Amino acid sequence: MTEETQTTISFSDLSLAPEIKRVIDEVGYETPSPIQARSIPPLLEGRDLLGQAQTGTGKTAAFALPLLSRLDLSARYPQVLVLTPTRELALQVAEAVQTYARHLKGFHVLPVYGGQNMGQQLRQLQRGTHVVVGTPGRIQDHLRRGTLKLDRLSCVVVDEADEMLKMGFIDDVEQILQHAPQERQTALFSATMPKEVLKIARRHLQDPVEIRIKSKTSTVATISQRYWQVKGLAKLDALTRILEAEDIDAMIIFVRTKIATVELAEKLEARGFSSAALNGDMTQALREKTVDRLKSGGLDIVVATDVAARGLDVQRISHVVNYDIPYDTESYIHRIGRTGRAGREGSAILFVAPRERRMLAAIEQATRQKIAPMKLPTRKDITERRVGLFKEQILAVMKSEDLTFFEELIDGCQQEYEVEPRRIAAAMAYLLQQDRPLMPEEETYVEPPSQSAPRVSAGKRGSADEGLRRYRIEVGKVHGVVPGHIVGAIANEANISNRDIGQIKIFHDFSLVDLPANMPSATFHLLQKVWVCGQHLQLSVDAGVERQGKPPKRRPAGKSGGGYKGNKPVKKHPSAAKRASKKARQT
Fold first, then answer.
1. CA distance 105 to 91
2. Model pTM greater than 0.90?
3. Which residues face 112 on adjacent strands?
4. Is 554 strand, coil or helix?
5. Where does the record place the region Disordered (predicted)?
6. Over 50: is that where the pLDDT of 242 sits?
7. Is residue 445 part of a domain?
8. Per residue in 403-459, pLDDT tens?
């Protein structure tokens, strides 16, 4: 595989459709990421592609931009199928595709995943769609129903193939590929290349271009890294709280687009923070002037894109904020490297939306460091900070200024209105802080719940945790199932969060899993039909029947002579010969 870590070309150098280039200019993308620079040309030529790159390297644009450029918009049938391991990624890819195609007249993209109303998907398929983005389980459902036809596909994209393998979907992926035309284009992306993924690539890709993007895996030890999960409060308000409460010398805030640098810098200026934009549209002289102001202390905050901040070396930068999560782990490492210079301590803060948690995990994996969750400063924290600064200002003025005139003013007010000096000082303080109140307005904000992984254990059954109920599923060790398969299928197909999945116990030919006790009946019935490792889950409430901690033995359906029906033993009827023998012994 060819390796590439740097890119020197621009999007204008690539032969993308004019409508696609227009969107790229509008959103302010500057240069392609390495995976985009290497993938777009061969995909535009119709070549198959095998790409190894970590999550968040910009793979979606790498395949979406060239494939959208090659669509036949007059043909209202699926031309591109994108397979993703989870519903979250399916939605993310579909939204990105819709954004890139917004100037393609009559274009339609359809996300297809479990947990969504089947009727809605059927109606959209009947109306016609150009791109389908889906999870393997739901795509298989449509193929069995005959409601999705893949016979006229021009391209199939398999995204995060190694995750498909971990979640037990790799066989589904192979079956779906067999439904697609022989003469098609295929692109397969994977963070790692286990042998099972390579086997599929060899079977289904024709003379592919092979690309491997190598990511850096080192960060500065003097940098404290934290993340805030975006929830319940606007990012700008959260950023404002951080600016108010942290001890900041200078800060660089990273956003994805040139437009965003200007918009955010203006909003921060309006809130009283000394800030300026730094992007590729600025002249070299203006960029240098902005950096000089930051170095000299004439400016405290710079809002920048990755490209504009390359080579930026300002020792007084104490904080880096990833306001928009970067496209790849290498960019993250470059970003936070702007602080912690010359042995000084630095602080890096990452804003993470719920659907971006996969990228957070990828960053932790690439840097081999855990990023700690942070709680935003409270209203009380901000009040204490503002009051402290206010007191420092008062003390500084008392030490440095001649206050005779103002002392006489206070004496005059006291005599004229017969009030205590304390009351007069309080009124003056109130007037002084009106434009920037010492006590911020009350806001309602709930911290997001902590993320916890499902617990996996073996042994005897126990009771489920409070709020959870124990269920039985008909897949076990004999089928090759592991906890990741179960968690992936339930979270993906039923839209149940990982943190809402409790203890998992895997037995010989069945498993037990704790799920929310208030699970809707529609979700319950959906999970009965979900496939894992080639088996229907057949979800049922656990009856608690077992033999010394082992699963009950089950005879194959159709066999005579007793056994188990469900969890209940079926009475065995002895033959006539055995009954006669028993009677003879008794006499």
1. 21
2. no
3. 134
4. coil
5. 543-587
6. yes
7. no
8. 999 999 989 998 888 888 888 888 888 888 877 778 766 543 333 333 344 444 444
Position 441 scores a pLDDT of 62
Would you say 35 and 7 are in contact if contact means Cβ atoms under 8 Å apart?
no
Among the three residues 148, 182, 212, which one is the final residue of a domain in this structure? 212
**Which segments within 42-92 are labelled E, that is strand?**
49-52, 80-83
One domain for residues 194 and 260: no
DSSP strand pairing (468-473 vs 511-516) = antiparallel
Residue 297, in any domain of the structure: yes
pLDDT digits (tens, 9 = 90+) for 198-241: 999 999 999 999 999 876 555 566 788 999 988 756 788 889 88
pLDDT per residue over 344-379, tens digit each? 788 999 999 887 888 888 888 778 788 999 888 777
- The residue among 112, 19, 11 whose CA lies nearest residue 69 is 19
State whether 190 and 248 are in the same domain. Answer: no
Going from the C-alpha of 226 to that of each of 253, 302, 372, 388, the distances in angstroms are 14, 20, 5, 25
Q: Are residues 203 and 75 in the same domain?
A: yes
Q: Phi and psi of 363, rounded to 5°?
A: -65, -45
In a domain? residue 273: yes
Predicted local confidence at residue 134, as pLDDT: 92
What is the structure's pLDDT at 122? 87
What is the model's pLDDT at position 568? 38
Query: Are residue 355 and residue 386 in the same domain, yes or no?
Result: no
Q: Which residues pair with 226 in a beta bridge?
A: 349, 372
Please, are residues 61 and 93 in contact by the beta-carbon 8 Å criterion? no
Tell me what pLDDT residue 555 has: 38
- Buried residues in 547-566 as b, exposed as e (16+ CB within 10 A): eeeebbeeeeeeeeeeeeee
CATH number at residue 494: 3.30.70.330
In this predicted model, which residue has the larger pLDDT, 487 or 263?
Answer: 263
Q: How far is CA 421 from the centre of its chain?
A: 57
Residues 196 and 247 in one domain: no
Amino acid at 502: G
Q: Are residues 371 and 390 in the same domain?
A: no
Structural domain boundaries, residue 73: 2-212
CATH number, residue 371? 3.40.50.300
DSSP summary character for residue 550: B
Domain boundary among 212, 241, 271: 212
Closest CA relative to residue 472, chosen from 543, 550, 523, 563: 543
**Which residue's structure tokens are 């229907």?**
536
Contacts of 513 (CB under 8 A, 6+ apart): 470, 471, 473, 486, 490, 501, 502, 503, 504, 505
Q: Higher pLDDT residue, 269 or 381?
A: 269
| DSSP β-ladder status, 80-83 and 275-278 | unpaired
Show the tokens assigned to 267. Answer: 């909003």
Q: Tell me how many domains the chain contains.
A: 4
Contact (Cβ atoms closer than 8 angstroms) between residue 128 and residue 508: no
What is the reported pLDDT for 19?
95
What CA–CA distance (Å, rounded) separates 367 from 158?
26
CA gap 510, 526 in Å, rounded:
18
d(Cα 507, Cα 157) in Å, to the nearest integer? 36
Claim to verify: residue 308 and residue 339 sit in the same structural domain: yes
179 and 101 share a domain?
yes
Residue 62 belongs to some domain of the structure:
yes
Q: Give the per-residue pLDDT at 157.
A: 96
**Paired residues of 187 in beta bridges:** 49, 157
Summary mean pLDDT of the chain? 81
